[in-house]
Amino acid sequence: MTAAHSSAANRGAAGWKLDSRRVAEDELEIALAGRWSLDENLPSAASLDASLFENLRRLRFGAAELGAWDSGLPTFLAELIKRCAERGIEVDRSGLPLGVQRLLAMAFAVPERELARAEAPGGLLARVGTATLEFFRGAPEMLRFLGEVTLSLGRFVTGRAHYRRAELWLLVEQVGPRALVIVSVISFLVGLILAYLGADQLALFGAQIFIADLVGIGMVREIGALMTGIIIAGRTGAAFAAQLGTMQVNEEIDAFRTLGISQVDFLVLPRILALMLMVPLLTLYAGFVGMLAGLLVSVTIFDIGVFEYYNETLRALELRHFAVGVSKGLAYGAVVAFAGCLRGIQCGRSAEAVGEAATSAVVTGILLITIVASVMTILYYNLGI
Amino acid sequence: MAGAPHIEIRDLTMAYGDFVVQRDVSFTVRKGDIFVVMGGNGCGKTTLMRNMIGLLPPAGGAVLYGGEDFWSAGPEDRERLKRRLGVMFQGGALWSSLPLGQNVGLPLEEYTDLPPQRIGEIVSFKLALVGLAGFEELYPAELSGGMRKRAGLARAMALDPEILIIDEPSSGLDPIAARRLDELILELRDSLGATIVVVTHDLASIFAVASDSIYMDTETHTMIATGDPREALKSGHPTVRRFLSRGAA
Ligand SMILES: Nc1ncnc2c1ncn2[C@@H]1O[C@H](COP(=O)(O)OP(=O)(O)OP(=O)(O)O)[C@@H](O)[C@H]1O
Ligand SMILES: [Mg+2]
């Protein structure tokens, strides 16, 4: 039995053609013919019949009738050769055109690196699970960072922290004045909504004047701080994470570490101080804008006099309400800056990682705001403030 | 001019998690050496550097400076040892929020009691050495890639460290700047007595400055040669000969 045992042919719609025939018991010849170019809908090595490779030791090629070809041909052959290597089949490439042989030689010159890739998470449930686990696994690191930040704040209070004043003022400008527009818009709308919401209910008792109490206390005590906190988490927390993350990518943080200069003092401290300074101020401002909206609605829609509203507001608001609002602003500012810097410092070394750090800074920031808000509300309630 | 052992690397294994980059790397750098670390892309040169400067704990083995084990030392001793090193990162790693003058000046402000005026003078001199005189006020983003690299070297030299570790100084530099850099490296050794470890692929630079070298292989994940690269070119391991002759030998 010397002649072909079997023969099979494959062809594409127009161009390429692939014939295989056994030239010996354990040797297969694949004859390539026609046009092998990427626009011809070329076959993939995976689509070849597995029975072709049964009991095979050697594979060789014929290319006598091969027409034009581009990188589609070596791509197909490279996959084929890899499959043969897995099965221990020896491949004789000498029947291929010289150009193809040279390209294949280059492609195989450097062995493929075997990577242990982390398994991509599966469905939504699995991803939520992984994220939750990761959050808790990150807890020790978060605590360590909290410790470092606390020490750094201690050094700041005792005047021993190394940071740039100029950078602090630059940050203050970035986070404060430039956030005014968005804080104004949002608090105005929230004030408006509060006023309408209150008017509807209070009208039942003919007590519409108490809109002033509702809007005033609500905005100053809770909502001003909450809205500002969330705006700053999206605006500044994400920016902090992206800034520090990019520094991580550029090895700037490494440079601090090798020089033994505290990156917490230098990078994190000014950011935390800037937000602890600006968020309470923005909170107060948000409160006033909200009350302004309430006033506008009351006067124009519900026929309450400007002076009436003003007096009612003055009567309702006490210093403690301001203290509560400002203290919440202070706390939210601190946690947002903390979350932004933490995620930035933890950032990996790629552009993608910077994006993830920014997203995660917002999520962590809002989560921390929620936790802190609950704790403070319960605390103040129990203290009767 | 071989001095006492200044840096010793003993059976170092470097890894990222389970992926072993290099194993059993050992070499000694003597005082006043210009020691070149060679190897193909991805063989672990930067990783070796990160092991040496305290950014990444090795998976095994030891790094010794003047006989003191870096990684088993306590945090304070480690800080003290780090103070003897000046490091230039592959991408320059300049602090993007500070202008060049402050980038170079910050280490001086942190670790010396020099008055600001003196610091300013030192900064201008160091910048002039790398060919960036008068660039103090520019921010890193306003520089070209090669200039950032040179500025990174100026920062590494700020404190006159006894050991300079430089990752690929000449890649991205024009030929004239690369040549000047070689001269600068030789001068730093000769006049300031610095011990210098350079990671480089630049053959001209290797032959110009190296007094000793190591070659780490990507495939076998271990070092396959040490010694003077000029000798290695003549009679070294075939892989190293190919490397040193751009694949021709
Ligand atoms: N953070 C990391 N996590 C996982 N693997 C990494 C990491 N950084 C580098 N590697 C891998 O470690 C190996 C060595 O990388 P390294 O950066 O040390 O190479 P190099 O010799 O400096 O290369 P080059 O000449 O291109 O600078 C590479 O294979 C790389 O893929
Ligand atoms: Mg490198």
Summed up:
The complex is a heterodimer of chains A (385) and B (249). With 385 residues, chain A is of the alpha/beta class.
Describe this structure in words.
The complex is a heterodimer of chains A (385) and B (249). By secondary structure, chain A is α/β, with parallel strands linked by helices. Chain A folds into 2 domains: 7-107, STAS domain (Transcription Regulator spoIIAA); 161-383, no CATH class. Helix content of chain A is 65%, strand content 9%. In chain A, strands 1, 2, 3, 4, 5 and 6 form a 6-stranded mixed β-sheet that branches. In chain A, a hairpin with a 2-residue loop joins strand 2 (17-24) and strand 3. In chain A, helix 7 (211-249) crosses helix 10. Chain A is elongated and about 105 Å long. In chain B, strand 4 and strand 5 (68-69) form a beta hairpin. Chain B has 249 residues and is an alpha/beta fold. In chain B, the strands form 2 sheets. A 6-stranded mixed β-sheet of chain B has the order 6-7-8-3-9-10. Chain B starts with a strand and ends in a 5-residue tail after the last helix. Chain B is 37% helix and 24% strand. Classes of the chains: A alpha/beta (385), B alpha/beta (249). Chains A and B meet through helix 8 of A and helix 3 of B. The structure holds adenosine-5'-triphosphate and magnesium ion (MG). Residues 16, 19, 21, 39, 41-47, 90 of chain B line the site of adenosine-5'-triphosphate.
